[in-house]
Design a protein that fits this description.
- This protein has 17 helices and no strands.
- With 281 residues, the protein is mainly α.
- The chain is 68% helix and 0% strand.
C-alpha cells in the first residue's frame, strides 16, 4: 500500500472516530440536559449548540420552558446555532419571555434562521424591555416595519403600565390599519388611562364603521381636543349616521370645533348637511 492509500485510510478512521466522539458526547449532554442542577442543564445546552446535533433540537425546544432563565437563554442560543426550522415557532413564543435577556437571545436566534426578519424579531423582543423608552422605540420600529406579525403583540401592549407606551401603540395600530385592532381600540375610548383623542384618530385611520356610535357618544365630551379628534375621525369614516350629531355640533361656541365639524361634514358629503353649513357662513 502506497503512502497516499495509507493517508486516506487514516483520514477515514479519524473522521469515524470524530463522529463517534461527537455522538457519545451528544448522548451525554442530552442526559445532562435533564439534570436537577440548573448550571449543568445550562452547560449541556451550550455544548449541544456547539455540536449542532440535529437530535438535540426537540430536547432544546423543551428547555425553552425551563423554570430557570439562564437555561432558557442557553437553549435559545443553542437552537440559533443549530438553525433547525422546527425551532422557529417555539422561539417566537419566547419573544415575550418574562426575562428580557431570553427575549433578546430568542430574537438573535430567529435572526440567524430568518435573516430578513431579524429587525422584526428584535423589535418584538424589546416590546418587553423594563425601560419604557426602549419599549416606545420598539413600537415605533414595528410601525415602520409594517409587519402583520406585529399586530397581536402591539394589541397586547395596549395594556402596558406606562401611558407613553400605550399612546405609541395606539398611534402605531392606526398607521398599520389592521382590522383586528378595531375592537381593542374601541374599548380604549372609555379607558381613563388612554387619551381619547389618540384613540379616535387611530379609529379614523382604520375607517372603522363599528366605531361610529362609540365615537358619536364622545362628541359630548367637554375636552375640546377630544371633540375635534372625534369629528375628524367621523369625517374619515364617512358614515351617514354621523351627520345629525355633527350638525348639532355646528352650534358649538368653540371656533376650532365648528371648523373640524364642518370639514367632517364636507368629507361625508351628505345633502342633509348643505343647508346647516350654508347657515354658518
Amino acid at each position: 500500500m502506497n503512502k497516499m492509500g495509507k493517508s486516506t485510510i487514516i483520514q477515514k478512521i479519524a473522521t469515524f472516530v470524530f463522529f463517534i466522539v461527537v455522538f457519545v458526547s451528544c448522548e451525554s449532554d442530552l442526559d445532562r440536559l435533564d439534570s436537577d442542577d440548573a448550571k449543568i442543564r445550562e452547560e449541556a445546552a451550550e455544548a449541544l449548540g456547539e455540536s449542532k446535533a440535529a437530535e438535540a433540537v426537540q430536547p432544546l425546544i423543551a428547555k425553552l420552558d425551563d423554570p430557570v432563565w439562564s437555561v432558557r437563554l442557553a437553549a435559545a442560543k443553542a437552537l440559533g446555532q443549530i438553525q433547525a426550522k422546527e425551532a422557529i415557532q417555539p422561539l417566537i413564543s419566547k419573544l415575550d419571555d418574562s426575562y428580557q435577556d431570553v427575549c433578546i437571545e430568542a430574537a438573535k436566534a430567529l435572526g440567524q434562521m430568518v435573516p430578513d426578519k431579524g429587525p422584526l424579531y428584535l423589535a418584538l423582543a424589546k416590546l418587553h424591555d423594563s425601560d419604557e423608552s426602549v419599549r416606545m422605540r420598539a413600537v415605533e420600529a414595528l410601525e415602520k416595519l409594517k409587519a402583520p406579525e406585529a399586530i397581536q403583540p402591539l394589541i397586547a401592549k395596549l395594556q402596558d403600565s406606562k401611558s407613553g407606551v400605550r399612546q405609541a401603540v395606539i398611534q402605531a395600530l392606526g398607521e398599520l390599519k389592521a382590522p383586528e385592532a378595531i375592537q381593542p381600540l374601541i374599548a380604549k375610548l372609555k379607558d381613563s388611562g388612554c387619551r381619547t383623542a389618540y384613540v379616535a384618530e387611530a379609529l379614523g385611520k382604520l375607517k372603522a364603521l363599528e366605531a361610529v356610535q362609540p365615537l358619536i357618544a364622545e362628541l359630548q365630551e367637554l375636552d375640546i381636543d377630544v371633540v375635534i379628534a372625534v369629528a375628524k375621525a367621523l369625517g374619515e369614516i364617512q358614515s351617514p349616521e354621523a351627520v345629525e350629531p355633527l350638525i348639532a355640533k355646528l352650534d358649538s361656541s368653540e371656533k376650532s370645533i365648528r371648523q373640524a365639524v364642518a370639514k367632517a361634514l364636507g368629507q361625508i358629503k351628505s345633502p342633509e348637511a348643505v343647508e346647516p353649513l350654508i347657515a354658518k357662513l
